[in-house]
Amino acid sequence: MKPSGNQPPADSVTDKAPNRIQVVFRRPEKVKRPETLADKVRTTAPGNVAAAFDELERLIGLREAKKLMYEIHALLRVNKEREKHNLKLEKQVYHMVFKGNPGTGKTTVARLFGKLFREMGILSKGHLIEVERADLVGEFIGHTAQKTRELIKKALGGILFIDEAYSLARGGEKDFGKEAIDCLTKALEDHGNDFICILAGYTDEMDAFLELNPGLPSRFPIQLRFADYTVDELISIAELMVEGKEYKLSPSAREKLRHHLMRKRNDVFEVNFSNARYVRNAIEQAIRRQAVRLLDVAEPTRNEVMTLLPEDFVWPAS
């Protein structure tokens, strides 16, 4: 039977009750929406901010750090909309604590945060001033405050990153480290968000440090945990490192490195494993060993000078 020309299309639903006006409900067109939070950021951020977020997204792991920056971007965007409606703006403090083992990306993230904060208009410069106890603590009364103030002045418009911050409290009540903490605390009050201070170090030591200084947690409301990398993440980091140096891992070299990292990660006596830093050192050593190996080759090919082989990766017996 030939279909009537008045019939609705196959993808519609009709009300066929007698003596009623026929109503056709068409299914809405499928619209492709951003699948992840990172995708949503790219669709709502200006080009320069989106480019900085792309750089952040290319980092291996670091989910908490990425999520934090996406939230800050979203808040700034909503603040602009609230301003249009004459509503109060949500102002936040961005001083942070980074907790985690060595080589988990704390310094890398701090440097990239500076760039992101600059692009988002929170910081005017976005540079990173990286210091430790020796840079802040002086040798006589008044010297510490002077050194600390000078470093804070250099950090204005950017980020002051204090590594192993808990070392400032290790000397006891009469140690000059306490003077550095007091000076820093005052600067946080005086300068607001003219600069962002990040305290970094091992998780347990940072927790103990914050407990000893009751005024600090409220001044550092953002605390990020940097988890150890998985073996798969470390292999991905290794591949990015060798690619950046215009080298490559042979399949067998990759497997040798993977098995070694699995042993290191599963060793209960390995308390000082330095994650990505360990991988970087292993690759640099392998590059040196490859160079020595190629001394026996009169005219090595392009592939030979690029490729790291299993014999280039050698570790002390354990």
UniProtKB/TrEMBL annotation:
It comes from the Bacteria. SMART domains: AAA. CDD domains: AAA. It holds the Pfam family AAA_lid_6. Residues 92-228 form the AAA+ ATPase domain. Keywords: ATP-binding, Nucleotide-binding. One of its GO terms (molecular function) is ATP hydrolysis activity. Belongs to the CbxX/CfxQ family. This is AAA family ATPase. It comes from Brevibacillus aydinogluensis. The lineage of its organism: Bacteria, Bacillati, Bacillota, Bacilli, Bacillales.
